[in-house]
Amino acid sequence: MLKVPVIIRHPRPDESLTPLWPSLEKYGWNLDGIWVAEHEGAIVGGVIVWDAGHDIVRVDNLHVIEDYRTRGVAYVLLDAVVKTLHDKGRRVILSTTQDIRMAYWAQKKGAAVGVAAHLIWWEIA
Ligand SMILES: CC(C)(COP(=O)(O)OP(=O)(O)OC[C@H]1O[C@@H](n2cnc3c(N)ncnc32)[C@H](O)[C@@H]1OP(=O)(O)O)[C@@H](O)C(=O)NCCC(=O)NCCS
């Protein structure tokens, strides 16, 4: 299904993630927990994996740059993440989305889909 050949990898420290997640740019990140899709040297998509060593892993903030959407980039990104988590013995992926199409897509792929509660965003003073 992939129509854009992308390389899936972790970002390098010198690469900006702001085009993917402008609201998160002020924070420091563990790049081992971030996966990006690269096309011809540019980052065109990314996802954040919150793996604390439990059976359940949060996978969130999936984002593909607008010009690259509907060409299979998100699918390839998620596929790489799922394979990696499977190899590590993780058992459940927990995720949220505000996009109903994403929820339907996940359901089609076998995910259980429920209504999310409120998101609590709490800066530690
Ligand atoms: C949702 C998003 C990541 C999909 O990326 P994409 O690269 O266009 O998706 P793909 O081309 O890999 O398509 C994968 C599947 O997702 C479906 N899909 C889910 N949500 C979609 C959306 N918002 N727009 C288009 N396709 C979507 C596609 O139909 C496709 O299904 P198929 O495999 O049955 O054909 C992208 O639209 C995006 O970045 N949206 C804004 C951020 C967002 O809503 N993130 C989601 C949750 S955190």
Structure annotation, total helices: 2
Q: Strand order, biggest sheet? A: 1-2-3-4-5
Bound molecules: coenzyme A
Integer-rounded radius of gyration:
15 Å
- For the record, give the distance between the C-alpha atoms at the N and C termini, rounded to a whole number: 46 Å
Shape: globular
Low-confidence stretches: none
Give the CATH class: Alpha Beta
Helix content: 10-25%
How are the SSEs placed, and which strands pair?
Layout: E1 7-9, E2 34-39, E3 42-50, E4 56-64, H1 73-87, E5 92-94, H2 100-108
Parallel strand pairs: 4-5
Antiparallel strand pairs: 1-2, 2-3, 3-4
The structure holds coenzyme A.
Coenzyme A binds near residues 60, 75, 97 and 101.
Overall description:
This protein has two helices and five strands, in the order E-E-E-E-H-E-H. The chain is an alpha+beta fold. The chain has a single domain, classed as Gcn5-related N-acetyltransferase (GNAT) (Aminopeptidase, 3-Layer(aba) Sandwich). Strands 1-2-3-4-5 form a five-stranded mixed β-sheet, with helices on one face. The radius of gyration is 15 Å and the shape is globular. It binds coenzyme A (COA). Coenzyme A binds next to strand 4, helix 1 and helix 2.
